[in-house]
Amino acid sequence: MILTLSAPRGGQTVREAARRELLVSATLLRRLKAADAIRVNGERAFADRRLAAGDTLTLDLSAAEPPCDLVPERGHVEVLWENEGLIAVNKPCGMIVHPTHARYTGTLSNLVAGYLPEPVCHAVNRLDRDTSGVVLFAKNAYWKDLASRALDKSGEKTYLALICGLPAPLSGTVDAPIDRREAGALLRVVSETGKCAVTHYETIASDGACSLVRLRLETGRTHQIRVHMQHIGCPVLGDGLYRTDASAALSARLGLTAQALHAQTLAFGLPFNRGHVTVSAPVRRPDFLKAMCELGYAAEF
Asked: Rounded to whole angstroms, how far apart are CA atoms 287 and 285?
């Protein structure tokens, strides 16, 4: 990918133009310099070169792309939205987002890399293995940085969850800090020593025993929704980590063997004032859909 900027006026250095006009990060600019991938009017240029009016600055992003060790794999990828630098897909329940030391293949990243013309992709947001829904990938490091900044600035995430019981009040905010239960532990707990965590929720269907809620996150702590729902006495159904005897029994009755949590929408502003994008993912899990159908609301999702 080549970035091009025609300087309408002189005075800026290459560094200033790249950072201010093209939104290139300092890290990427260093990699561009190291890769000798900066040109002005087709000639090699240094970052401190001052541009004259009418100069054309070009940056070869491909030359500065970090090595990618993803193994591209062919398989079904449900694409929800795509542009020249980003792609949003609907992650199935039970699939991890990116490879780990123990698993190099069979991940969502492997499948997205196999779908794209160039086998390079960077996960911008992540979901737990058993949480389904919208995951955003960048097609290169430049777009990953742009998207990460956009999510930090204007991003909004909403989720659907089936929870045990009926929350009181029916709509509200859980503002409770989250920390590890103990050093190195996977489990999180609400703790005064934890980091700020805020979850907004609204009940959209219920039969008293089971409720369908929509949640919006202000923060993105690990297991935030699952911890907060357990904290208010309404654990996410199907969750084997954050559960009660009542939620486990109801989950078994409904046939929910994995947490009934779905990342429904991801919204953010595109860079360079190119508008606002809202990506929505339909629920595909049969057990989740069946439970919603029993509540009479499956047709809406």
From this structure: 6
